[in-house]
């Protein structure tokens, strides 16, 4: 039976509460003085305290109750305390609620209200304890690990990061998949930062941002004169990453010739700079990322299957932000940098929005809201999201680079690019027009 402790020097009040709560299945222990209360607390597991504010005849100001409350709060921070007060003590009660009292009830009380207040206080306590437990579990799983500033609360991200940390110390090639802006680079950072290579180089190269004729020179280096414009010897990213890790983002964009060379380095560690016959050997851990379906690219003959198996020894699939809603508010708070709070409507809107641009889009939305909002609280209007702006998305929700990249990866096929961005074909055309990008 759940035990409640009533601290009140008025015996009839204690008895009335015992009867009332017994009917609800609670056992009420009565303390007529602070001393008795401490004894009962030491001897029993108390779930909740109902505390009066005065314990000696003639005392009305509630000072005794205030002192006792602060002592109880300190000794038993996890037990919810509901205060029983006279109307004249409301000001003090407000102070105590701010200091951590769960609630208060004015005497003479209404039975139903009192029961509801106690039930709510117990429920709240249970939720808080569950949250604390989850938080502790999360911290103990990740204790001593470098999470590279990633913020998350969803179970999906917890699992993914656990797997990431498990894989980090091995040399296995890892392929990180997930939509644009979902945080693939962050996962790559965690892999390197928790590997034995953490003190060595971590080199990053975005294949989506490179013209295909420069890719090989970037990856493997080039001797002076190896191609027009190569005026001096250039060290490639594989050489630079020797002993450390190399992160190849948008690996699906690597040319077929580049793929053949990449396969060879992965198999033997060997390669030559462009324009050189000297074979070099490196020890590099490869982390790749893609937001496209590489198996479909294999089907189209654009990506080598043998390379796919090499880079994809283990796959970490990062879910879209909309699939891990528990991360949205913690991330939003991170991006608002505690400068402004969110109204509850704004919080709801953030959680119900579909986030086609994922975390990057959330970051942009928060930055814009910080600039636009005129009060200390960000309203749902300040977010500029479609549900608010007459059903239309703000046109700059997807940045130009992401748009161009999606179009490039889709080989200029607008419907395919739109699908990848999670928007309609018409919506993509409107954004292309907005940025002045000509239709392919
Ligand atoms: N869990 C997170 N905590 C904090 N910041 C995050 C998190 N996830 C993503 N971000 C931030 O969101 C932005 C986009 O993330 P990132 O560049 O890692 O995405 P991506 O999946 O690699 O994108 P792309 O496919 O476009 O290369 C970055 O500014 C990153 O710092």
Automatic annotation (TrEMBL):
Sites where 4-aspartylphosphate occurs are at 52
Q: What keywords sit in the KW lines?
A: ATP-binding, DNA-binding, Nucleotide-binding, Phosphoprotein, Transcription, Transcription regulation
Q: Name one GO biological process term.
A: regulation of DNA-templated transcription
Q: Which is an annotated Pfam family here? A: Response_reg
> Which InterPro entries did the record assign?
AAA+_ATPase, AAA_lid_NorR, CheY-like_superfamily, Homeodomain-like_sf, HTH_Fis, P-loop_NTPase, Sig_transdc_resp-reg_receiver, Sigma_54_int
Gene3D superfamilies for the chain: 1.10.8.60, 3.40.50.2300, Homeodomain-like, P-loop containing nucleotide triphosphate hydrolases
Coiled coil stretches, renumbered: none
Give start and end of each Response regulatory domain. 3-122
Residue ranges crossing the lipid bilayer per the database entry: none
**Which GO terms label this protein's molecular function in UniProt?**
ATP binding; sequence-specific DNA binding
UniProt keyword Metal-binding present: no
Superkingdom of the source species: Bacteria
Q: Which protein, by its recorded name, is this?
A: Acetoacetate metabolism regulatory protein AtoC
- Species for this entry: Rheinheimera nanhaiensis E407-8
């Amino acid at each position: 039976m759940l035990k409640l402790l009533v601290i009140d020097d008025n015996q009839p009040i204690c008895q009335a509460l015992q009867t009332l709560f017994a009917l609800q299945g609670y056992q009420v222990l009565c303390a007529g003085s602070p001393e008795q209360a401490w004894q009962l607390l030491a001897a029993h597991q108390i779930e909740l305290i109902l505390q009066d504010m005065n314990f000696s005849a003639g005392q009305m100001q509630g000072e005794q109750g205030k002192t006792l409350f602060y002592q109880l709060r300190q000794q038993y921070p996890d037990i919810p305390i509901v205060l029983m007060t006279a109307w004249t003590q409301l000001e003090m009660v407000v102070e105590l609620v701010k200091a951590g009292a769960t609630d208060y009830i004015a005497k003479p009380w209404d039975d139903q209200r009192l029961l509801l207040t106690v039930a709510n206080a117990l429920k709240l306590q249970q939720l808080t304890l569950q949250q604390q437990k989850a938080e502790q579990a999360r911290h103990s799983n990740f204790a001593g690990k470098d999470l590279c500033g990633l913020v998350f609360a969803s179970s999906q991200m917890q699992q993914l990061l656990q797997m990431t940390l498990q894989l980090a110390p091995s040399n296995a090639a890892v392929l990180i998949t997930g939509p644009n802006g979902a945080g693939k680079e962050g996962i790559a950072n965690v892999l390197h930062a928790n590997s034995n290579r953490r003190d060595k180089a971590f080199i990053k190269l975005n294949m989506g941002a490179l013209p295909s004729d420069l890719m090989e020179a970037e990856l493997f280096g080039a001797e002076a004169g190896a191609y027009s414009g190569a005026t001096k010897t250039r060290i490639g990213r594989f050489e630079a990453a020797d002993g450390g890790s190399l992160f190849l983002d948008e690996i699906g964009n690597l040319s077929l010739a580049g793929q053949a060379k990449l396969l060879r380095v992965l198999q033997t560690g060997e390669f030559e700079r462009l324009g050189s016959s000297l074979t070099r050997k490196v020890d590099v851990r490869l982390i790749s990322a893609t937001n496209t379906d590489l198996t479909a690219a294999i089907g189209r003959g654009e990506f080598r299957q043998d390379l796919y198996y090499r880079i994809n020894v283990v796959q970490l699939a990062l879910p879209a932000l909309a699939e891990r809603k528990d991360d949205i508010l913690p991330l939003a708070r991170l991006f608002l940098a505690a400068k402004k709070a969110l109204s509850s409507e704004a919080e709801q809107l953030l959680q119900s929005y579909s986030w086609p641009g994922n975390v990057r889009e959330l970051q942009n939305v928060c930055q814009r809201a910080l600039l636009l909002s005129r009060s200390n609280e960000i309203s749902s209007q300040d977010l500029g999201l479609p549900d608010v702006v007459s059903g239309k998305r703000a046109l700059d929700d997807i940045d130009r680079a992401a748009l161009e990249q999606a179009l490039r990866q889709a080989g200029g096929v607008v419907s395919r690019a739109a699908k990848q961005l999670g928007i309609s074909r018409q919506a993509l055309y409107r954004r292309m027009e907005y940025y002045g990008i000509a239709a392919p």
